[in-house]
Each structure stands twice: as structure tokens, then as C-alpha cells.
């Protein structure tokens, strides 16, 4: 059974890989032949248009649909190399007095117009948009954490907050994972992160220089990059398949990074 279809990506801490995971998982699901709508809900701080290399094509955004200034399909951008992915950019400025029902209605209309099977909403962390999505739109959440103590604590609190709001299931994605540091005991290992966040794990994305560099130029890393393998594994788990934690990533041995 597929885990969820309308996915909130969040965590209270910034700069920990939320947008990267949202895009990586959206790309991986679309490479599986699934139609995916990726919505940048980080109003005032949009970045997915840059990561996708489509910033010069942005004409309308999420706020234009919300304010009825354009039809949902007018806010869609297609993404080079990902024919099954539809993208809706975030507004350049934050929403003022966001109306939760109207916002969820906007997401629902985008979803309908895109004919997407999966919707992935990238957010900035706690705030009006997250509250609205968790309580009125999403059927599951990916909570992002890194090995940083502050981010682990944030992930735990965010998961509690999201579960209380909407009763939707939360799954943990550990991002920017440095396997060597975990092996050496310098940074938190997997068990410590899972224990401290109290959230079931969906996947682990290793720190990947190729991913970092590709983002600078608005490209996706090659499908053979270790981060791309990690996103493919997460996509497969969302699709209900059983996949080993580091499947396809030869150098990482689960037992050593626990
Ligand atoms: N797996 C990873 N490997 C290497 N760098 C990463 C990885 N995930 C995220 N980053 C980098 O971390 C920074 C923050 O990522 P981003 O996705 O924008 O975080 P957030 O959305 O939480 O603010 C970016 O520079 C991004 O390239
Ligand atoms: Mg972000």
C-alpha cells in the first residue's frame, strides 16, 4: 500500500535540507512514472525555482492562484528532464493573514488541475502554511532532521506539532548524513536520531557534494549519485516497497552508522 499522496515536508529548523528532500523525492517519484506536483510553499524565501533552473520562467506563483489572479494551470512550470513533474513556485513575498481554508482550497485546485497522483509541499517550518497543510490538506508528513542536536530537537517538536494538528502520520528523513562522522562517534548515529525524534524513519540522505554542486547550477544530480539513490529509495518506500536503508549505496554499511 502506498504510504501517502499529499505530503507536507517540514521541520522547524532552517537550512537542514527540507527543499532538497522535497525536490529529490518529487524527482524520484516522477522518474518512477508517477505524476507529481511540487509546490513551493516557502513564501518570501522561494528556492525550488532556482534548484530546478526555471527561475527565469516564473510568471505566476502560488499567491496568484490563492488570490484568483490566474488559473491553477497558469502557475505551472515544467521541469527539464522530468516530464512527469509539475512545479508551482512560491510567491516572492510572505502571505499576510493566510486563510487556512482558502489556502487548502488553492492546493486542492492545483492538485486537480495537474492530475497529479502525488503532491509534495515544501515549507519553511512552523507557520500558517504548515498549520493549514497539516490540518486541512496533507495525508502524511516528512519531517527532516540532520545529525545536528538542534535539528534533532526541532524535528521531535515539529512531529508532535504536526501530529496534534492533523493526526497525519509523520515519517523521518535524515538529511545531510555524514556516515564517517557517525561511524567515528563524532556525530549522532541513526539510532540516536530516531530515538530522540520518536519518529519512524522513511530514509537517510547522505551528504553529497555532487548534489550541492548541481544545485548551484540548477540541475539535478545524476541518477547514480548517492543522494539520488537515497531519494529513489524513499520514493520506493512511499510506493509501498520494502527497500534496505542504504540500498544502492555501496560504501555505506548500516551496522556501522547505527
Ligand atoms: N544531502 C545533501 N548533501 C549536501 N548538501 C545538502 C544536502 N541536503 C541539503 N544540502 C545543502 O544544504 C543547504 C540547505 O538545504 P535546503 O534544502 O535549502 O534546506 P532548507 O529547505 O531546510 O532550508 C543547501 O545549500 C543544500 O545544497
Ligand atoms: Mg527550504
Explain this structure:
The protein is α/β, with parallel strands linked by helices. It has eleven helices and eight strands. It has helices at 18-31, 48-52, 62-66, 100-114, 128-136, 149-166, 179-183, 190-197, 209-216, 226-238, 254-257; strands at 6-10, 36-40, 77-79, 82-88, 118-122, 140-145, 170-177, 200-206. An eight-stranded mixed β-sheet has the order 3-4-2-5-1-6-7-8, with helices on both faces. 50% of the residues are buried. The chain binds adenosine-5'-diphosphate and magnesium ion (MG). Magnesium ion (MG) binds at residues 18-19, 42, 47. The site of adenosine-5'-diphosphate has 17 residues, from helix 1, strand 7 and helix 9.
Compact overview of the structure:
With 258 residues, the chain is an alpha/beta fold. Helix content is 40%, strand content 18%.
| Topology-level CATH name | Rossmann fold
Give Rg in angstroms.
17 Å
In total, the number of strands is 8
* Beta-strand content: 15-25%
Structural class: alpha/beta
The tally of domains stands at 1
CATH level-1 class: Alpha Beta
Question: Architecture in CATH?
Answer: 3-Layer(aba) Sandwich
Helix count from the secondary structure assignment: 11
Helix fraction bin: 40-55%
Q: Please state the average pLDDT score.
A: 94
Reconstruct the topology from this structure.
Blueprint: E1 6-10, H1 18-31, E2 36-40, H2 48-52, H3 62-66, E3 77-79, E4 82-88, H4 100-114, E5 118-122, H5 128-136, E6 140-145, H6 149-166, E7 170-177, H7 179-183, H8 190-197, E8 200-206, H9 209-216, H10 226-238, H11 254-257
Parallel strand pairs: 1-5, 1-6, 2-4, 2-5, 6-7, 7-8
Antiparallel strand pairs: 3-4
Helix pairs in contact: 1-10, 4-5, 5-6
The protein binds adenosine-5'-diphosphate and magnesium ion (MG).
Adenosine-5'-diphosphate binds at residues 14-20, 47, 175-176, 205, 207-208, 211-212, 215, 227.
